[in-house]
Structure formats: structure tokens, C-alpha cells
Amino acid sequence: MNLTLHHFLKEFRYLRVRWLAFLVLLGFDLAVNLEWVLPMRAGVATAGWVSYLPVVILLAGLSLLLSCPEDKPGSDRSFISTRPVPAQAYWMARVLMWLLLIVLPVVAQNGLYLIMSGRPAADVMRGMWERLCFAAGFSAWLLPTLVLWRRSELWKMVLTVALTLGLVSKVLDVAASTWWEYHPSYYQTWPGRAAGWAVFAVLSGVLAWRHLSRGFSFKRRLMMTLLTGFVALLTARFWAWEDSPPEAQNVALVAKLEPGLQFNVVLSRAHFSGTETSYRPNLTAEVDQNTHMQGVHVASRPRRSDFAQGGSTRRSESNERNAYRRSPFDTPQMEVFRGDRNLRDFFPKGTLLISNDEYFPKWTRLEQPNTALATFSKPYPKFDEPLSIDTEFLVEWYQRDLALDVPVKAGAGGRCEDVSWEILRVTPAAGPQPGALTISLRMESRAHWDAENGHAILLYLPQQRCVRLEPTKQVVVGERGEHTGWRHRQIELTWNHIFNHADGESTGVEISKARLILLRSRFLGQSQRHWKSPEMRLADLPSHWSKSLQWFESKALYAGREVKAFQERMATLTPPTAASTEKEARRYAYDLFSAASVTQAVYSYAAHPLIAEAFEPLGRHQLPLMLDLRSQTWPGWSNKPPNNQLERYVTEEQREVVIDRAPSQAMLADLVVRKGWAEAAKRLKPQILSSPVLPPGADELLTAWKDDPDAVARMLTEIRNDLNGVFIHALDKLPETRPAIEARVSEQFEDAVPLIPSNQTDAALRRAANFGSAEAFDICLRWLSIGGDLPSRMRSYPAPNLLNPDGSDFWRKRMPEHERWPFFRHLKVSDFEYVPDKRSWKFRQP
Prior knowledge:
The structure is a single chain. Strands 4-3-7-15-11-12-5-16 form an eight-stranded mixed sheet, with helices on both faces. Strands 8-9-10-14-13 form a five-stranded antiparallel sheet. By secondary structure, it is an alpha+beta fold. The chain is built from 28 helices and 19 strands. The protein is globular. Mean pLDDT is about 85; it is low at about 75-80 and about 545-555. It is about 40% helix and about 20% strand.
């Protein structure tokens, strides 16, 4: 021990000036983080060099390990081997120097920073532990490195290892995503990085020990270092392979609410994608999950599934690589971005929720997520044969609340246990966008490596009765305390069209009445649920993939010469005859459909006679083949060629064949109704009514059977899935079903979330307005009034039935967008009267 201490003191005397400089750097970093020096100010960007201060400190710390030049075992001038110092004492002195001169000061500085920031003891200890892992993991590797490499060899090794591991990293990403559907780079975490460096240090230490005893050549040391680096890279990348969920923050509340959890699988909204794609099979459905507590919601995913088929049962385990993340981006913190009823109920009824992200719609993506109902692993069950599924779900519980709610004025602020706010400045923003608002916000927040809570900043405008769910632009002006556990940030938040609309007209907003809100999401814990399906054939369920099948468009290539291009292509084809083989007929059908679609001839009235003529050989000689083509593969408008050509060739002889195919093909179901065969098709009624998910052609057949009580009952249960209003329109004409339809429409409106953009919200609001709801009509008018303020990709809007004072259809006359938004901006519900028999709102006489 005396020799260890003696050697440590000798090295310390040599390094004391350098170490004092290191301490000065740590002190300066502490002063910067506490903003004693270079405080962040509104409108003033932080000096760029401040962001490099941690790097300078890291390099200064590593320089302390260089020790006395003559006492490095890898040095040509080393005389350590001639001195009576045992290797154990030498290395203990080196480790002691590393711990006391580098690691301990860094950890102590971090703890002091957290204490002076007013953090609780638990946060201080956690921050110091993370800093210990950071400092130790990223510096320990230099101890064995000085033994392994001479100065002339060091940079050759660093360059070779960096380039090789960079290439291996890319190959690893490709291989892992191909074989295991796992993307290591996306899941990279700071604990994983620290662990990887620590593994590299330990293995390099073993290599250095063996090198001192055997004396490896440069080539061998380099190859073994590359192997060591590869193992460290695997550790860092796959650290999160089976990562545990974040810390449960209220297990007692989960236990209390779990027995009352509503967990209803809506099989009528099920989809199965497994026969149209090489990607793994995927069975999803909408699941009604209600915790019956405001602010608390759940997210479910299957852990394992048992398939019973043909008298045998087989278990399939989940192939998700992460315990709580569906994908690299679906972390628990993302659960804050859920545009659901819980979010709606935080604000007064009728408040519009406006998203601003047109390219990555976080809020609408989780609006009504489809839940996976089963896990599939090879060998897959037979999808075209009946089976039943018993799935065990992992249910994750989250609670959201309005953690901070402050007025939008300079000096306002608030604090909760993990975030502190202070508004520094409120100004209209300079720039091309009229009426923009910029808020300079100072935010302090908990920033541990594995952050538990999700946060979203909302702007609530009571006068406009709307909530802006995200800023148009968010800029971090300054940052302090990164990787300390408590981060300081100054951010500038900008929202467009607050004081003025896009056309320059004033919105009348008084910003003093606006509120800046922090929406927080916390992970409460987990529970389990079981679900057992009825016996069904997965192949009968609709598929997201098949719905998306379409002919590719090439408008730019054929603009202005659609008809000519179609004629030129068809002139090269040989029409099929009765003697043609099925292969020849299929090829001709493919060429006809693709040419008509790619050239855009299907949308040109001048080309329709040519398409009908080209279709004639198929309809006359190859009708059975045409009847087998799925409806979504037919290009163009549903009432134009080639879609309307089958009726010319189908006769009474094909009636039963067409009826048999009608449930699975909407186009043939429509043909059955137009041909007057709906009554004959009633033999399919038991098959259709017993199906948990209506087949594509069922809409047409059920509406044709609207006088049948069984058909009416099924249509009433399917109204929640009736996005286009086919069943509602049919049943609304029947006096006996009108009250039930009105009740269903009202229920849909009560469940709707007025979230922009959202097709489901659009349909529910429009339908409720058409059925006389003044509240829904008011929301539609307010939505229409701000349409011009939204990004171009988000300008869909609910268009309720409107009548001019003379009773004519208002929407028949097209109104340019630049006129539409100001027109509706000055309208109120009182400017209309409801006409029940027209299901419309009529303008009052001016």
C-alpha cells in the first residue's frame, strides 16, 4: 500500500497544475450551468463555444491519465520496468489517480449543481449515479490504451478502429433490421453508450495484461482491439434489446382501476394483412378501452397468442424486441401526444384542438390507434381455414394532467415536480407570416437518461375556443446542464396566425387572456388482459394492404396527350379471343388497366369510348376472368369505363356466379342490385349477418334489403363503422328507424374529438350538423373560418348540407378558397335555420 500511495503522490506532484486547471474548468462549467456566468437572456443566443465546454472538460480529464512521459509502459523511454515497483502497486496507483483526480471531481460537481438547483435527494443521487457511469465509462478505456500503444502507433490504431467499427455499425443495422426486425441505431441510449465504453475498457485491460506478459505484435494487438471494439459496439447497440419499462409511478391506482377497465374488441373494425405482403402477418382492430377516470388511458399489445385450428393448439410468442416500445419512436413519452377524449375533456366543450404538423401528425396518429390482436411467428396458422385466437395482452397505464397553466405575459411562471417555467418575453414575431406570436420561455426540467414523463406545450385561446397543440416553430436559444439530470433551456415558441388570419384580417385575440399549458404524461404501471376470439377465417377480413393497391400515376409524363398515349399502347396489343389461354387474357387485362391508369385516360371523357372498345374482347370472351378480379384493381371512376362495362356482358346466365362473388367484391354487389337480383341474393343473408366483419360488398346488399328487419338490425350496429354514411342515408328514409338513427348520430358526436385534421372527426361533426345539432354546426363553422390558416395538406373541412335562401344547394357553386374562409368567418348559427326534412341548414333571408 505504501508503494501504491508513494507512486500516486509522485504522479500527483507532476500533474497538480494540470489537475488544478481541470478543477477550474469544472468550476467554470458549474457557474455556467447555474447561470452565474453567461446567463441566458430573452432574444440573446448563447455563444456557440459554450456547447463545446463539456468536450474541453472531457479532453482535460483524459489528459490527466497521460501521467509522467517516462512512466508510461508503452513509451520508448520507460524505466518503470527497472524500478522496484510491483505491477499491482503501479496499476492500483493508476486506478486511484483515475478515480480521485477525474471521476470523483466530475461526480461531485454534478451533485453540487443539483443541490444548488434545489433538487430533492433522490434526484441528486440519481444524477450523481448517471454522471459516475458517464465519467467512468467514457474515460476508463484510456488506462489500458497507454499500455498497448506507443505514440507512433496510437493514431494508426484510432483511425483503423474508427473506420472499421463505423462500417460494421452500418452492416449491423441492415442485418438486424432484415433478420430480427430490430433497428439498433434507433434504439441507442446513453446508458447503452456508457456500457459499451465500459466493456471496451475492461476487455482492453485484459488485452493489456496479456500484452505485458507476452509482448504481442502491432498487427495482433490491432486485430484483438478490433474484436474488443466489436463486442463493445454490440453491447451499446443491443443494450435496449430487452429494456425494462420505466418506473411505475402509481401501481396502487392501476390496481384500483384495472377491475373496471372497459376492454371491448370491435371485430367489425378488424383488418388482417398477411396474404398480400411478405412482411409478417398483422391482425389489428379497434379496441374500446375506457378506464372511467379522466386523464387516464391505456395502451395494449399482445404478449403471446394461442391458435386453435383443426383440433390442435399452438402458441406464438411476441416477436417485439422491446418490452415497452412498439418502435424506436413509440416510447412511453410519446403517449402524451394522444388526441383522444381525455385530451378533449381537459377543455370546455366544443373547443377545437388544432395540430400544426402536416408531415408527422403525432396527435392524429394516436387518435384511435388500431391495436394488434395477435402475435404471429412461423410456422403460421392456415389463414384460409377457421381458427380461434386466445391472446394475452400487456396493458400499459398512463395518466395525463395539465401540470402547468400560466397566463401568456412576461414574468408569469409556474413549477411542478419535474418542470419549472418562466415567460421572459411575449412579442409578435417578425417575418412573412402575419399575426404570429413568439414566446421566449425559460424552462428547467428533469433530464435523466431514462426520462419517465412526456411533455407537450399547448397554447389555449379561450376567445377562439381552440387549443394550438404545438408551435409552428420551436427554437432552442440556449441550453445548460445537459447530462446532469436537471436541464436549463431557453426556447422561443412561435405560433402563426394568432393576431391575424392568413389573409390579414384581425382575429380579435387578446393575448392577455391566452394560457400557456404544459400537458404531462406519466407511466402508472402495467396489467394483463385476455381476449378470446370467435371462430373465424382471417383471410375473410379486409386488409390494409389490399385497400392501398392502386395503379401508379404518371401525370407528368402524359399530361396533354392522355388519349393519344393510350391509343398508341393499345395498338401494340393483341385482343383475346374465345380461344385465348387464361395467361394471355390476364396479360391483356393487365396491359389494358395499367395503360388506362398510367396515362390517366380513365379520367378523360374523350378516352372512355376507346376504353370501352378495348374492354369488349374481355367482356365477350373472358367474362369469368373479369368476375374474379378484385374491385380495387379496377382503375378510374366507379361509374365510368372500365368499371361500368361488366353490366353490358353479364346476363341472367351469370346471375348465380355473380351473386356468389358479390359479398367479397363491392363492384359486383352493386351490379347485383342494379340488375334487380337483390332478392335472389338473400340466400347470402345468413353468411353476411354472421360475419364479425362485413365483407366489402355487404353495404350494397344490406341497403337493398332495408325492408328486412334482420338487415336493418345489422345496419344499426354498423353505424359506427359507416364513415361514408351509406347505412345512415338508407335508414333515415324509413320512419320506423329514423329515431334510432338520430340517437346513433348523437352518440357519435358525443364521442367525437374535435381534432384538426381528422377524417373521423370531420365525418362525425358533419353528420351531427346535418341531423340538426346546433353545437356540431357551430364547430363546423368555426373550423371553416380558420381553414386558410392551416397548412395546405391539412385543409380538409366538414361541409354540412347548406341551402341558399331560395332552397338551392349552396355547395353546387364552387367558391374559391380565398373567398371561402372569410365568408364563413363572419357567420353564426343564428344566421341559419334548420330544415329537418332536407337534413340541411338554410341561410336566413339577409
